[in-house]
Design a protein that fits this description.
The chain is mostly helical and 312 residues long. Helices cover 70% and strands 0% of the residues.
Protein backbone atom coordinates (compact mmCIF):
# COMPACT_ATOMS: atom_id res chain seq x y z
CA UNK A 1 0.00 0.00 0.00
CA UNK A 2 2.85 2.41 0.85
CA UNK A 3 4.40 1.88 -2.59
CA UNK A 4 1.04 2.46 -4.26
CA UNK A 5 0.52 5.73 -2.37
CA UNK A 6 4.05 6.85 -3.26
CA UNK A 7 3.54 6.14 -6.98
CA UNK A 8 0.14 7.83 -7.04
CA UNK A 9 1.01 10.79 -4.78
CA UNK A 10 1.48 13.25 -7.70
CA UNK A 11 -2.14 12.74 -8.72
CA UNK A 12 -3.35 13.66 -5.22
CA UNK A 13 -1.30 16.86 -5.33
CA UNK A 14 -2.85 17.88 -8.66
CA UNK A 15 -6.33 16.30 -8.92
CA UNK A 16 -7.76 15.84 -12.41
CA UNK A 17 -11.53 16.21 -12.77
CA UNK A 18 -12.76 13.66 -15.34
CA UNK A 19 -14.90 14.79 -18.25
CA UNK A 20 -17.50 12.67 -20.06
CA UNK A 21 -16.76 11.66 -23.67
CA UNK A 22 -18.97 10.57 -26.56
CA UNK A 23 -18.15 6.87 -26.08
CA UNK A 24 -18.89 6.86 -22.34
CA UNK A 25 -21.88 4.80 -21.27
CA UNK A 26 -24.87 6.31 -19.53
CA UNK A 27 -24.02 4.62 -16.20
CA UNK A 28 -20.60 6.26 -16.18
CA UNK A 29 -22.07 9.66 -17.10
CA UNK A 30 -24.56 9.38 -14.24
CA UNK A 31 -21.72 8.38 -11.92
CA UNK A 32 -19.82 11.58 -12.87
CA UNK A 33 -22.99 13.63 -12.35
CA UNK A 34 -23.41 12.13 -8.89
CA UNK A 35 -19.77 12.94 -8.05
CA UNK A 36 -19.93 16.52 -9.32
CA UNK A 37 -21.14 18.20 -6.14
CA UNK A 38 -18.76 16.47 -3.67
CA UNK A 39 -15.96 16.66 -6.25
CA UNK A 40 -16.28 20.43 -6.57
CA UNK A 41 -16.13 20.76 -2.77
CA UNK A 42 -13.20 18.34 -2.37
CA UNK A 43 -11.37 17.57 -5.66
CA UNK A 44 -9.13 15.00 -3.97
CA UNK A 45 -12.13 12.64 -4.09
CA UNK A 46 -11.37 11.92 -7.76
CA UNK A 47 -7.77 10.67 -7.30
CA UNK A 48 -8.86 8.87 -4.10
CA UNK A 49 -11.50 6.84 -5.96
CA UNK A 50 -9.04 6.16 -8.79
CA UNK A 51 -6.42 4.98 -6.28
CA UNK A 52 -8.90 2.70 -4.48
CA UNK A 53 -9.89 1.13 -7.79
CA UNK A 54 -6.27 0.68 -8.93
CA UNK A 55 -5.11 -0.73 -5.59
CA UNK A 56 -8.00 -3.20 -5.23
CA UNK A 57 -7.53 -4.31 -8.84
CA UNK A 58 -3.81 -4.92 -8.24
CA UNK A 59 -4.38 -6.90 -5.03
CA UNK A 60 -7.30 -8.92 -6.41
CA UNK A 61 -5.58 -9.80 -9.67
CA UNK A 62 -2.36 -10.71 -7.84
CA UNK A 63 -4.32 -13.05 -5.56
CA UNK A 64 -6.07 -14.65 -8.54
CA UNK A 65 -2.80 -15.41 -10.32
CA UNK A 66 -1.30 -16.87 -7.15
CA UNK A 67 -4.40 -19.05 -6.62
CA UNK A 68 -4.19 -20.29 -10.22
CA UNK A 69 -0.48 -21.07 -9.75
CA UNK A 70 0.46 -19.52 -13.07
CA UNK A 71 3.91 -18.88 -11.60
CA UNK A 72 6.07 -21.56 -9.96
CA UNK A 73 5.77 -19.82 -6.59
CA UNK A 74 3.45 -17.17 -5.09
CA UNK A 75 4.67 -13.59 -5.42
CA UNK A 76 3.50 -9.99 -5.35
CA UNK A 77 5.06 -8.99 -8.65
CA UNK A 78 1.76 -8.86 -10.55
CA UNK A 79 0.28 -6.26 -8.21
CA UNK A 80 3.56 -4.33 -8.16
CA UNK A 81 3.73 -4.36 -11.97
CA UNK A 82 0.13 -3.17 -12.25
CA UNK A 83 0.65 -0.20 -9.94
CA UNK A 84 3.93 0.68 -11.68
CA UNK A 85 2.69 0.55 -15.26
CA UNK A 86 -0.53 2.42 -14.49
CA UNK A 87 1.64 5.21 -13.08
CA UNK A 88 3.66 5.39 -16.30
CA UNK A 89 0.74 6.81 -18.32
CA UNK A 90 -0.79 9.87 -16.57
CA UNK A 91 -4.23 9.19 -18.05
CA UNK A 92 -4.33 5.82 -16.31
CA UNK A 93 -4.49 7.42 -12.86
CA UNK A 94 -7.75 9.29 -13.24
CA UNK A 95 -11.32 8.05 -13.11
CA UNK A 96 -12.40 6.70 -16.49
CA UNK A 97 -14.97 4.16 -17.72
CA UNK A 98 -12.17 1.80 -18.74
CA UNK A 99 -10.74 1.91 -15.21
CA UNK A 100 -14.11 0.92 -13.75
CA UNK A 101 -14.45 -1.90 -16.30
CA UNK A 102 -11.09 -3.26 -15.13
CA UNK A 103 -12.65 -3.87 -11.71
CA UNK A 104 -15.50 -5.81 -13.33
CA UNK A 105 -13.06 -7.83 -15.44
CA UNK A 106 -10.86 -8.69 -12.46
CA UNK A 107 -14.00 -9.92 -10.68
CA UNK A 108 -15.13 -11.97 -13.70
CA UNK A 109 -11.77 -13.56 -14.60
CA UNK A 110 -11.80 -16.19 -11.80
CA UNK A 111 -15.20 -17.37 -12.99
CA UNK A 112 -14.06 -17.52 -16.62
CA UNK A 113 -10.97 -19.58 -15.80
CA UNK A 114 -12.96 -21.66 -13.30
CA UNK A 115 -15.14 -22.94 -16.15
CA UNK A 116 -12.46 -25.55 -16.84
CA UNK A 117 -13.27 -27.56 -13.69
CA UNK A 118 -16.94 -26.63 -13.23
CA UNK A 119 -19.32 -29.51 -13.92
CA UNK A 120 -22.51 -27.38 -13.80
CA UNK A 121 -21.47 -24.01 -15.19
CA UNK A 122 -24.77 -22.64 -16.48
CA UNK A 123 -25.39 -20.31 -13.54
CA UNK A 124 -21.78 -19.16 -13.73
CA UNK A 125 -22.06 -18.55 -17.46
CA UNK A 126 -25.18 -16.43 -16.97
CA UNK A 127 -23.40 -14.28 -14.37
CA UNK A 128 -20.35 -13.87 -16.63
CA UNK A 129 -22.53 -12.82 -19.56
CA UNK A 130 -24.44 -10.41 -17.33
CA UNK A 131 -21.17 -8.80 -16.22
CA UNK A 132 -20.05 -8.31 -19.80
CA UNK A 133 -23.41 -6.74 -20.63
CA UNK A 134 -23.08 -4.24 -17.77
CA UNK A 135 -19.63 -3.22 -19.08
CA UNK A 136 -21.20 -1.83 -22.26
CA UNK A 137 -23.35 0.51 -20.15
CA UNK A 138 -20.17 2.04 -18.74
CA UNK A 139 -18.09 2.23 -21.93
CA UNK A 140 -19.95 1.05 -25.02
CA UNK A 141 -16.96 -0.12 -27.14
CA UNK A 142 -16.29 -2.64 -24.36
CA UNK A 143 -19.11 -4.67 -25.92
CA UNK A 144 -16.30 -6.15 -28.01
CA UNK A 145 -15.05 -7.88 -24.88
CA UNK A 146 -17.54 -10.52 -25.93
CA UNK A 147 -14.70 -11.77 -28.15
CA UNK A 148 -12.80 -12.64 -24.98
CA UNK A 149 -15.86 -14.44 -23.61
CA UNK A 150 -16.14 -16.52 -26.79
CA UNK A 151 -12.44 -17.41 -26.56
CA UNK A 152 -12.81 -18.41 -22.90
CA UNK A 153 -15.71 -20.72 -23.76
CA UNK A 154 -13.70 -22.27 -26.60
CA UNK A 155 -10.65 -22.76 -24.37
CA UNK A 156 -12.25 -24.05 -21.17
CA UNK A 157 -15.48 -25.76 -22.21
CA UNK A 158 -16.50 -28.38 -24.78
CA UNK A 159 -18.98 -27.00 -27.27
CA UNK A 160 -22.51 -27.29 -25.86
CA UNK A 161 -25.32 -25.27 -27.42
CA UNK A 162 -27.22 -24.91 -24.13
CA UNK A 163 -24.21 -23.33 -22.41
CA UNK A 164 -23.74 -20.85 -25.24
CA UNK A 165 -27.44 -19.96 -25.12
CA UNK A 166 -27.30 -19.37 -21.37
CA UNK A 167 -24.29 -17.09 -21.86
CA UNK A 168 -26.11 -15.12 -24.56
CA UNK A 169 -29.15 -14.75 -22.31
CA UNK A 170 -26.95 -13.42 -19.52
CA UNK A 171 -25.30 -10.98 -21.93
CA UNK A 172 -28.64 -9.67 -23.21
CA UNK A 173 -30.39 -9.47 -19.83
CA UNK A 174 -29.06 -5.97 -18.93
CA UNK A 175 -30.24 -4.69 -22.33
CA UNK A 176 -33.67 -6.26 -21.71
CA UNK A 177 -34.07 -4.43 -18.40
CA UNK A 178 -32.86 -1.19 -19.99
CA UNK A 179 -35.45 -1.47 -22.80
CA UNK A 180 -38.16 -2.16 -20.21
CA UNK A 181 -37.08 1.00 -18.38
CA UNK A 182 -37.25 3.04 -21.60
CA UNK A 183 -40.69 1.58 -22.36
CA UNK A 184 -42.13 2.28 -18.91
CA UNK A 185 -40.81 5.84 -18.79
CA UNK A 186 -41.40 6.55 -22.51
CA UNK A 187 -37.75 7.33 -23.27
CA UNK A 188 -37.23 5.34 -26.48
CA UNK A 189 -35.19 8.15 -28.06
CA UNK A 190 -32.38 7.47 -25.58
CA UNK A 191 -31.70 4.14 -27.28
CA UNK A 192 -29.82 5.98 -30.02
CA UNK A 193 -27.67 7.80 -27.47
CA UNK A 194 -26.40 4.61 -25.82
CA UNK A 195 -25.40 2.93 -29.09
CA UNK A 196 -22.99 5.32 -30.85
CA UNK A 197 -21.74 4.81 -34.38
CA UNK A 198 -18.60 2.72 -34.64
CA UNK A 199 -15.44 3.72 -36.42
CA UNK A 200 -11.75 3.09 -35.93
CA UNK A 201 -9.71 6.11 -34.88
CA UNK A 202 -6.15 6.67 -33.75
CA UNK A 203 -5.82 7.99 -30.20
CA UNK A 204 -5.57 11.75 -29.85
CA UNK A 205 -1.95 11.95 -28.70
CA UNK A 206 1.25 13.73 -29.65
CA UNK A 207 3.79 11.25 -31.01
CA UNK A 208 6.77 12.97 -29.41
CA UNK A 209 9.74 11.55 -27.53
CA UNK A 210 7.95 11.39 -24.11
CA UNK A 211 5.23 9.29 -25.74
CA UNK A 212 7.78 6.82 -27.12
CA UNK A 213 9.65 6.62 -23.81
CA UNK A 214 6.42 5.76 -21.95
CA UNK A 215 5.38 3.19 -24.55
CA UNK A 216 8.86 1.60 -24.54
CA UNK A 217 8.82 1.25 -20.74
CA UNK A 218 5.57 -0.70 -21.12
CA UNK A 219 6.01 -2.75 -24.28
CA UNK A 220 9.66 -3.79 -23.93
CA UNK A 221 9.30 -5.67 -20.60
CA UNK A 222 5.84 -6.92 -21.68
CA UNK A 223 7.24 -8.50 -24.87
CA UNK A 224 10.18 -10.08 -23.03
CA UNK A 225 7.83 -11.37 -20.35
CA UNK A 226 5.48 -12.74 -23.00
CA UNK A 227 8.26 -14.82 -24.53
CA UNK A 228 9.41 -16.06 -21.12
CA UNK A 229 5.89 -16.98 -20.03
CA UNK A 230 5.16 -18.86 -23.26
CA UNK A 231 8.34 -20.85 -22.81
CA UNK A 232 7.42 -21.71 -19.22
CA UNK A 233 3.73 -22.46 -19.79
CA UNK A 234 4.49 -24.83 -22.69
CA UNK A 235 5.78 -27.33 -20.10
CA UNK A 236 2.81 -27.01 -17.77
CA UNK A 237 -0.54 -28.81 -17.50
CA UNK A 238 -3.38 -27.94 -19.88
CA UNK A 239 -5.24 -25.69 -17.43
CA UNK A 240 -2.26 -23.40 -16.91
CA UNK A 241 -1.46 -23.28 -20.63
CA UNK A 242 -5.04 -22.32 -21.42
CA UNK A 243 -4.99 -19.65 -18.70
CA UNK A 244 -1.85 -18.06 -20.15
CA UNK A 245 -3.43 -18.18 -23.62
CA UNK A 246 -6.53 -16.42 -22.29
CA UNK A 247 -4.33 -13.66 -20.83
CA UNK A 248 -2.65 -13.22 -24.21
CA UNK A 249 -6.02 -12.89 -25.94
CA UNK A 250 -7.17 -10.50 -23.20
CA UNK A 251 -4.14 -8.32 -23.93
CA UNK A 252 -4.90 -8.27 -27.66
CA UNK A 253 -8.59 -7.39 -27.17
CA UNK A 254 -7.73 -4.76 -24.57
CA UNK A 255 -5.31 -3.09 -26.99
CA UNK A 256 -7.85 -3.13 -29.84
CA UNK A 257 -10.99 -1.76 -28.16
CA UNK A 258 -9.68 1.80 -27.48
CA UNK A 259 -9.24 2.36 -31.23
CA UNK A 260 -13.06 2.33 -31.57
CA UNK A 261 -14.35 5.92 -31.47
CA UNK A 262 -11.34 6.91 -29.36
CA UNK A 263 -10.89 10.63 -28.80
CA UNK A 264 -9.53 10.47 -25.27
CA UNK A 265 -5.83 9.87 -25.85
CA UNK A 266 -4.24 6.89 -24.16
CA UNK A 267 -6.62 6.81 -21.18
CA UNK A 268 -8.83 3.95 -22.38
CA UNK A 269 -5.83 1.73 -23.14
CA UNK A 270 -5.82 0.93 -19.43
CA UNK A 271 -8.11 -1.92 -20.51
CA UNK A 272 -4.90 -3.72 -21.51
CA UNK A 273 -3.08 -2.95 -18.24
CA UNK A 274 -4.47 -5.96 -16.35
CA UNK A 275 -3.17 -8.68 -18.72
CA UNK A 276 -0.05 -6.62 -19.49
CA UNK A 277 0.88 -6.66 -15.79
CA UNK A 278 1.12 -10.46 -15.72
CA UNK A 279 3.55 -10.50 -18.65
CA UNK A 280 5.64 -7.71 -17.09
CA UNK A 281 5.61 -9.71 -13.85
CA UNK A 282 7.03 -12.65 -15.85
CA UNK A 283 9.82 -10.31 -17.02
CA UNK A 284 10.55 -9.58 -13.34
CA UNK A 285 10.21 -13.19 -12.15
CA UNK A 286 11.96 -15.55 -14.54
CA UNK A 287 15.45 -14.11 -15.25
CA UNK A 288 17.99 -15.31 -12.70
CA UNK A 289 20.02 -12.12 -12.89
CA UNK A 290 17.86 -9.29 -11.60
CA UNK A 291 20.12 -6.31 -12.37
CA UNK A 292 18.41 -5.47 -15.67
CA UNK A 293 14.94 -5.89 -14.16
CA UNK A 294 15.89 -3.53 -11.30
CA UNK A 295 17.25 -1.01 -13.80
CA UNK A 296 13.95 -0.97 -15.73
CA UNK A 297 11.97 -0.55 -12.49
CA UNK A 298 14.07 2.38 -11.29
CA UNK A 299 14.02 3.92 -14.76
CA UNK A 300 10.22 3.72 -14.73
CA UNK A 301 10.03 5.34 -11.29
CA UNK A 302 12.34 8.17 -12.38
CA UNK A 303 10.27 8.65 -15.52
CA UNK A 304 7.04 8.81 -13.50
CA UNK A 305 8.53 11.52 -11.29
CA UNK A 306 9.93 13.45 -14.26
CA UNK A 307 6.54 13.50 -16.00
CA UNK A 308 4.87 15.01 -12.95
CA UNK A 309 7.47 17.69 -12.21
CA UNK A 310 7.89 18.66 -15.87
CA UNK A 311 4.12 19.05 -16.22
CA UNK A 312 3.98 21.22 -13.10
Amino acid sequence: MFLGILLKLPYFLAPVIPQAAATDGFLYIRFLTWLQAPGNAAPFIYPLIAYILLFTQAVTFNGLINDLKLFPSPNYLIGFAYLLITSTIPGWNTISPALIINSIMVAILPSMIGLYHNQKPKGLLFNIGFGFGICSFIYFPSVYLIVLLIIALALFRPVQITEWLVTIVGLLTPFYFLLVYFFVWDQWKQVYSIIPKHRLRLPDVQYNWPFWVSISLLLFPALIGLLLSLNYSSRMVAHIRKSWNLMLWYLGVGLFIPFINNNAGLGHFILAAVPMSIFIAAFYFYPRKKAFFEFIVWLSIVWIGWQFFSAG
